[in-house]
From TrEMBL:
This is ABC transporter ATP-binding protein. GO terms for molecular function: ATP binding; ATP hydrolysis activity; transmembrane transporter activity. SMART domains: AAA (SM00382). One of its GO terms (cellular component) is membrane protein complex. CDD domains: ABC_MJ0796_LolCDE_FtsE. It comes from the Bacteria. Gene3D superfamilies: P-loop containing nucleotide triphosphate hydrolases. It comes from Clostridium paridis. Residues 2-231 form the ABC transporter domain. Keywords: ATP-binding, Nucleotide-binding, Transport. The lineage of its organism: Bacteria, Bacillati, Bacillota, Clostridia, Eubacteriales.
């Protein structure tokens, strides 16, 4: 499904050039639950943002379902983000003035679906994460775990091929975080491809595959159980 070839990413910070990614090569199959593990500043979030179409590489290619997304125009990239992927963020990124149902419906506005269709799909997504009974509640009336479930439902509402989770339990206590990880496991078992970025070793072990990132390079990939470089 995803093939990343010789991807680099460089940033200018004042007079210095920072290499966030240094020649990343990675293949991710349909239906995988992949954890990208690494400390702060390792390049793991940069890699996820590039695969997710939120950023573009300095060089290299990112092929998703046979299409090089690094060459997409802005309009095509927006369509890719809206139809192919769903994002779950550490900070939930919900609108506090909107109900859970309205938050989940938001991505569908850009897909051209009718209001009735948006509601049906949003309720189905909330059902998948066990929150149908809280559909009329606002985020301020919910616990952190419930808000993250709403965020996951919003990521699911367009039936994406890939779900990206960026430190999805970072704002939650360990017990609640474990429950959220159970939701991701259940979604993966239903066939969703999950790509999770984390610095939490314990949560990374819940995935089926772990890719360790260090200093912008892949240090280890559990799928081959091989050390790529000393770290």
């Amino acid at each position: 499904m995803i093939e990343i070839s010789n991807v680099t990413k460089k940033y200018r910070m004042g007079k210095e050039t920072v290499e966030a990614l240094r020649g990343i090569n990675l293949k991710i199959d349909n239906g995988e639950f992949l954890a990208i593990l690494g400390p702060s500043g390792s390049g793991k979030s940069t890699l996820m943002h590039i695969i997710g179409g939120l950023d573009k590489p300095t060089s290299g290619t990112i092929s998703v379902e046979g299409k090089d997304i690094s060459k997409l125009k802005d309009k095509e990239m927006s369509k890719y983000r809206n139809s192919t992927i769903g994002f779950v963020f550490q900070a939930f990124n919900l609108e506090n003035t909107q109900t859970a149902l309205e938050n989940v419906m938001m991505p569908l506005i850009f897909s051209g679906a009718s209001k009735k269709e948006r509601k049906i799909k949003a309720l189905k997504a909330l059902e998948l994460v066990g929150l149908t009974d809280l559909s009329k509640h606002k985020p301020t009336e919910m616990s952190g775990g419930q808000r993250q479930r709403v965020s996951i439902a919003r990521a699911l509402v367009n039936d994406p091929a890939i779900i990206f989770a960026d430190e999805p339990t970072g704002n939650l206590d360990s017990k609640t975080g474990s429950k959220i990880m159970n939701v991701f496991k259940e979604l993966n078992e239903k066939g969703y491809t999950i790509i999770m970025v984390t610095h939490n070793e314990k949560e990374a072990l819940r995935a089926n595959r772990i890719v360790r990132i260090q200093d912008g390079e892949i240090a280890q990939d559990s799928s081959s159980d091989s050390q790529v470089r000393e770290g």
